[in-house]
Write a structure and sequence with these properties.
The chain is an all-alpha fold and about 375 residues long. It has one domain. The chain has 11 helices and 2 strands, in the order H-H-H-H-H-H-H-H-H-E-E-H-H.
Length: about 375
């Protein structure tokens, strides 16, 4: 009953996507018609070619939020929808399927290899999935309550599901079967001398993952053997979990710097730390990835402790102190990056997702929509 009530509430929110309050401003009307929240799928080519048609600065709207605040919330809602989609796929095959996170029936061999990294992996996957769905539902409900159009990406759910036993056969927004995973976050959080906000660059912890396309879930039941192949898929998932959640850890505090309304700021400051909690959990579990070579594609997971250096040491899961703001200050333990809002953090997030392979198979309309939402969020400025 509780799940049915929550689902009905989500459906009610989505139903209103095409019916924003009559008090909507002309700007929201533009958003509603031009950014597919009403399912039209039309985005003017000139907008993307020539930049934003309006600045998302601190212009007051009838809902009491600035246009910049709305742009930030809408972009974050889109990101949470994307993350909900990918985490649902992980939960269907590797998590716990229940009334809180329904769908799928699990893949026993995949779960067994995930649990070699930690016996509670399925519970953690389940909880991360539920959290992302809660973020998505809240952000859209809040937007609607303030007279702004929620975000709906349902028309883009056409990517195929895994054919492995345990996965639902439904349309997806994201592709977890051809990933090119950036694992430089591992060395970034161990560096004491570099910060991406100050031009720092970082080595890949698992170089092979950045040089090909690899599944993080079994694509079909044939992926369940041989043993080192399905274990490599579980290892890939563990590093991908960290990649996704470190992004949220940086995105929320970065975009918060462009927020004007205190309640919106409270929302970002309340959701952001949950992303960091997720990240530290997955940071820890990735360190337990089994040392192996996948016999089907040559992907190598090395012994990260073999070098004896801190750059890859597996138990250094708390951010090492590093430079911040200016090298004249002493090192400090921080989330990084958190560069000032407006320098492209939202656009960079979409680029990172794209480079990751998450959107392989998606339409041009999908990419155009995400780019537009990201540009508007990056243009937001605090009043």
């Amino acid at each position: 009953m509780e799940h049915n009530a929550r689902q009905a509430q989500k459906e009610k929110i989505m139903e209103h996507n095409t019916q924003p309050p009559k008090a909507s401003t002309s700007r929201r009307s533009f958003l509603r018609k031009g950014l597919v929240v009403a399912g039209t799928g039309t985005i003017g080519a000139g907008l993307l070619a020539g930049g934003l048609s309006f600045p998302a600065f601190a212009e007051e709207t009838s809902g009491g939020l600035t246009s910049g605040d709305v742009a930030i919330l809408r972009f974050l809602a889109a990101v949470e929808i994307i993350e909900s989609d990918l985490w649902q796929q992980y939960n269907e095959l590797g998590g716990i399927q229940d009334s809180e996170v329904p769908g799928g029936s699990g893949s026993a061999p995949y779960i067994a290899d995930l649990q070699k990294l930690d016996g509670d992996m399925s519970q953690y996957i389940h909880d991360n999935t539920e959290d992302e769905f809660s973020h998505m539902a809240f952000l859209n409900a809040y937007l609607f309550s303030r007279g702004a159009a929620p975000v709906n990406l349902d028309r883009f759910r056409h990517l195929p599901s895994s054919k492995a036993t345990g996965a639902q056969q439904i349309g997806r927004l994201t592709n977890l079967m051809q990933l090119t995973v950036d694992t430089s976050w591992w060395t970034r959080y161990r560096s004491r001398t570099q910060n991406p906000d100050l031009g720092g660059t970082f080595a890949q912890a698992i170089p092979g993952l950045s040089k090909g396309q690899f599944p993080a879930i079994p694509r079909h039941d044939g992926d369940l053997v041989p043993d080192n192949h399905i274990q490599a898929i579980a290892n890939t998932a563990a590093f991908h979990f960290g990649f996704i959640e470190q992004g949220g850890s940086s995105l929320y505090p970065t975009l918060a710097q462009g927020v004007t309304n205190l309640e919106v700021l409270r929302i970002l400051l309340s959701i952001g730390p949950t992303e960091t909690s997720h990240f530290q959990t997955w940071h820890d579990k990735a360190g337990n990835a089994k040392v192996l070579t996948d016999p089907t594609n040559g992907l190598v997971f090395p012994d990260l402790n073999a070098s004896g250096g801190e750059d890859t040491q597996t138990n250094l899961i708390m951010p090492e102190p590093t430079i911040f703001l200016n090298r004249k200050f002493p090192p400090i333990s921080i989330i990084r990056p958190t560069g000032i809002a407006g320098v492209g953090s939202a656009v960079a997030t979409i680029k990172a997702f794209t480079d990751d392979g998450l959107f392989i198979g998606q339409s041009k309309e999908f990419f155009a929509l995400l780019q537009q939402l990201a540009q508007q969020a990056d243009a937001a400025r605090r009043a």
